[in-house]
Amino acid sequence: MFNGKKRLPRAAVGVAIAGALGSILALAQAQAQETVKIGLILPMTGGQASTGKQIDNAVKLYMQQKGDTVAGKKIEIILKDDGAVPDNTKRLAQELIVNDKVHFIAGFGVTPAALAAAPLATQAKVPEIVMAAGTSIITERSPYIVRTSFTLAQSSTIIGDWAAKNGIKKVATLTSDYAPGNDALTFFKQNFTAGGGEVVEEVKVPLANPDFAPFLQRMKDAKPDAVFVFVPAGQGGSFMKQYAERGLDKSGIKVIGPGDVMDDDLLNGMGDAALGAVTAHLYSAAHPSAMNKEFVAAYKKAFGNRPGFMAVSGYDGIHLIYEALKKTGGKTDGDALVEAMKGMKWESPRGPISIDPETRDIVQNIYIRKVEKVDGELYNVEFATFEAVKDAGKTKK
Amino acid sequence: MTTLFTILFDGVAYGMLLFVLACGLAVTLGLMNFVNLAHGAFAMAGGYVCAVLVNRSGWPFFASLPLAFVASAGIGAVLERALYRHLYNRSHLDQVLFSVGLVFMSVAAVDYIMGSSRIFIKLPAALEGQVDFFGIGIGRYRLMIIVICGLLTAALQLVLARTRFGSRLRAAVDDPRAAIGLGINVPQVFAFTFAFGCGLAGLGGALSAEILGLDPYFPLKFMIYFLIVVTVGGSSSITGPFLASLLLGIGDVAGKYYVPKLGPFVIYTIMIVILIWRPNGLFGRTAAR
Amino acid sequence: MTAQADVGRQARQHARWHWSEVAFWILALSCAFLFPSRYLIMTDIVRLALFALSLDLILGYAGIVSLGHAAFFGVGAYSAGLLALHGIVTEPVMALVVAGLVATAVGFLTSFLVIRGADLTRLMVTLGIALLLEALAERFSNVTGGTDGLQGIEMQPILGLFAFDMFGKVGFFYCLAVLFLLFLLARRIVHSPFGLSLRAIRNNPLRAAAIGIPVNRRLIAIYTLAACYAGIAGALFTQTTALASLDVFSFERSADLMLVLVIGGTGYLYGGLIGAVVFRMLQEVFSTITPQYWQFWIGLVLVVIVLVGRARMHRWALWAPNLIIRQLGGRKAIVAVPESDAP
User: Fold this and answer.
1) Which of chain B's ends, N or C, has fewer CB atoms near its CB within 10 Å?
2) Domain enclosing residue C169, as ranges
3) Residues paired with residue A364 on neighbouring β-strands, in sequence order
């Protein structure tokens, strides 16, 4: 037990290891400046990985199609995995800005991650392009944040209005208990009750939730006309399967909600249970435009599956960066770039979209869609359009 | 009243599923005192094998279930012979490090091969929906789970109690040294049991895809649940984990139905209280030496 | 020489600073000047090292396994965050002390639950406590910000003099200083009679009780101290990142910590520090090479480490230094010691 030499060798190992590994640190240093660098911070591992992969794929696809030079500058993407943990996001963003001298930070799978990077964007005057996270407040946290995804308020208010007008009187809600879920619930309730509807049951489920059975039983017992659902992309499939298993479809309870639940990349796996669900969302792979058909075909060819709304958000995000650079003539000054992005309008695979010059948030059409079978596959088929919807979370004020 | 029965029914189905998933872990821990945190990886393997067979190759669901078992058991047997057996005498910490390493590898490998999205297994129409039984809604799929898992549990109990192999296994669990002294080939018993436990996990994985969801992070997400089952139940018999699974399943489902706001508190509090009250688990004698 | 005097001499000899330890700290300090662009990851490593040191105190010296050490990390992190956010204690060093005390209190209260039971039970009770705290933090989202975490934390300059900068330079030196001070304290403690009695308990609690060591009281004391260390690590986390979100309590954080400590080796204080360096560097290197599948390679490294055996690895790593010492000094080579972690 009293071994006097015990400490020595281990500490010496430490010295050796620290020295050896330390030299690796120096490897990832900044390079020459003739390129425009984009730090893409996404959850590539962990529960949110599918979001990260869709966006990464879409960015790759865009760069394949449009080439990697714009306004005379070469575009370089530096992909980092934050695992959706905000302190990682912050560290990575900081390192990208300080060491790699990136001109944009982009990505951000979840709201806390986007918020964590916000002060850095302000401090370093680097545009932060939010390609996924959907809470209203994000763009208010820094004048350098521009969003190309969506806010939950956009789709939730629309589906609230739609439900109230289309003969749905009583609704039970099932939302994941975190910021986007609460946003969805608040905005839905606000518009739905204003339209004369009634929320008869309100259930918040934990974010990490293995089994929906007990919650669905509550829904069933409340006997509503419809269930309003918001669960993060990925859990929607489990929800729909159990919804059908519990016989809620047979008892005439409809599923409505923002379109996250009916994400295109999972829709086919849900089986016929999903048929008839009505959701409001920014994008459907079945959007009937030539541009979208081309996009879907190219995406399928490159990655073997259907693009979801996250992919489109990533695709538009990189498009926005390209266009902003074109407008500034390749200048990478943060203020000029954000200025260039404000008010920009373009045709995206999801339809016409623009960046609100005041809030830097996205303005887009919200479509009401119903799940139907087209050529043996399930699609969200759009049947009503609400044009140029702004973020209700901000217009309210 | 009927709701109460439906809740009970759901809870039992959920608990049974947890038991099939976790009982292999109880055996590993009780018999060889090996902390195998990678147990969920075998379950995931079974689930993916079943999904590929059903969705891509068009196999019938019921034919794929045994194959999920066989595949996981096979992987378990190979890994046991190749890797695990070298580590039985190492410290728990080494075992944790090793099995967590395996989990990481399996997660990334499945992500690479199958993608990170959640996948579903196409079920035969006969298993979808609910049947009404005196006003109590009974999910067909959950009913099937209860039947399969119930039969398995009964069979396991019979094998353990009545067969020669069962008595050897029990002897080995109670006192490995004396068992070796009596001429029981403990390593062989263990290898077989390990593979069988992995097979059960694989079957559980295939069955749980519908209810728990199947994605590459399955082994990490459910590691905690398996550990709860084993510690609360104790690892010296299969009755303990079985009852613990049912308790956990019913507690979880009922807790979420009646007090949805309290969410996960119920389970964790129950666990801590039970462990303070009976540190070796509800039915444990030699758990966690 | 009496037995008592012999033990005393041995212990003193053991407690003496060795040149390699001095070299370790000089190297740690010099990293700040060698890699001025990598302050952030180095800060991360230092924080993790302190956190691992805290686990080493209970695991390596008292044999208490814990899979929920993030509980105290989280308590410290949220305390520091709330103190700064509401302007209760604005000076970081003071806030650090207060956050440490809060974690100490939580540690003391939970220690009574933890000292009961064997390894596996402890593992699950600690894990349960961390998960409960996480659920609590999520429930009381009006205080903690729920899943969004605490937003808008702004840190005041340290001691009113050094403001946190964007490059993380001040943060790094701050963390390193705190680590060093707490390390000195830990070193003093583990070499004191109290520390020796803990080892006796780890090796055999029954025998320790028989020679008159108050086992439970000692375990409670060290567990509380470790909670304090973890709380300070958590507070450092909040102060240097200006963030506190639910994941500070997460199972992954506790599990990673366990890996860090086991990689470095338990029961000699430097294990956590070395483990932190190795683990984070591996993560950084692999995730730079392959942001999607780095977990596979980390997993592979863990498996290989266990299969090869750490003792053997240490021997290999020491081969070159040993050779040099042999050549230069003509002294007998230093051999790696056998495994000593094992509660």
Assistant:
1) N
2) 34-250
3) A353, A389
